[in-house]
Amino acid sequence: MFNSVKGKTVVVTGGSKGIGKGIARVFAEQGANVAIVARDVEAAEDCAAEIKAGGGKAKAFLGDVRERESMQEMAKKVAETFGGIDVLCANAGIFPSAPLETMTNEEWDIVMNTNAKGAFHAVQACIPYLKQAKYGRIILTSSITGPVTGYPGWSHYAASKAAQLGFMRTAALELAGDNITVNAVLPGNIITEGLEGLGDDYLREMASVIPMKKLGRVEDIGYAALFLASMEAGFITGQTIIVDGGQILPEN
């Protein structure tokens, strides 16, 4: 699709499952060296093994986006293993539900620390290596929830995803002079391992609100990230791509 990512090193945080795993697979299919970063290193190793079995190049790395030192150590090890870092897909995130009236400080903090501060930690850790690359790419996995829509029980999640976009725009300004672009993908309803266990009726209900009448695939997010990571997208920075099958379009 975009041959310019072939041989590049791509870091995917939260890469062991869900959208992150889809992103990792897409980049591996295009010939990139994929660093799969997760707190559950065994799950990351399983994902890397799947990719390698399919002919791709991947390696698992332990990393907790909530901890600055963990991200710094991860970035160092990835650069030592592959000779540098060209692309960061800051994808790690959580989405627990909690009603606003009863939400605790702890429930708020863990979502913000993982989704918003976690993106900051991953980006900051990778900047020195992205500066050394021929061109650097940062792609954040945000969401339509927060930046565009709302959803009951997700006020903390929505706040974290909107925060990512404010961070993205200023980061794009600060890093433009180093030939590093910073963009975001905003997924709508995407089918992942977690959703598959909720049953066909639930999945059909979710798909019914989408004009295309189907849920997105994790690869759909991967292909959007792939475009933003390509050489061909080098004049795009501080921007967002919504991947939702038209979900936000209807007025009611």
UniProtKB/TrEMBL annotation:
<dbReference type="InterPro" id="IPR036291">
    <property type="entry name" value="NAD(P)-bd_dom_sf"/>
</dbReference>
<dbReference type="InterPro" id="IPR057326">
    <property type="entry name" value="KR_dom"/>
</dbReference>
<feature type="domain" description="Ketoreductase">
    <location>
        <begin position="8"/>
        <end position="188"/>
    </location>
</feature>
<dbReference type="GO" id="GO:0008206">
    <property type="term" value="P:bile acid metabolic process"/>
</dbReference>
<dbReference type="InterPro" id="IPR002347">
    <property type="entry name" value="SDR_fam"/>
</dbReference>
<comment type="similarity">
    <text>Belongs to the short-chain dehydrogenases/reductases (SDR) family.</text>
</comment>
<protein>
    <submittedName>
        <fullName>3-oxoacyl-ACP reductase</fullName>
    </submittedName>
</protein>
<dbReference type="InterPro" id="IPR050259">
    <property type="entry name" value="SDR"/>
</dbReference>
<dbReference type="GO" id="GO:0016491">
    <property type="term" value="F:oxidoreductase activity"/>
</dbReference>
<keyword id="KW-0560">Oxidoreductase</keyword>
<dbReference type="Pfam" id="PF13561">
    <property type="entry name" value="adh_short_C2"/>
</dbReference>
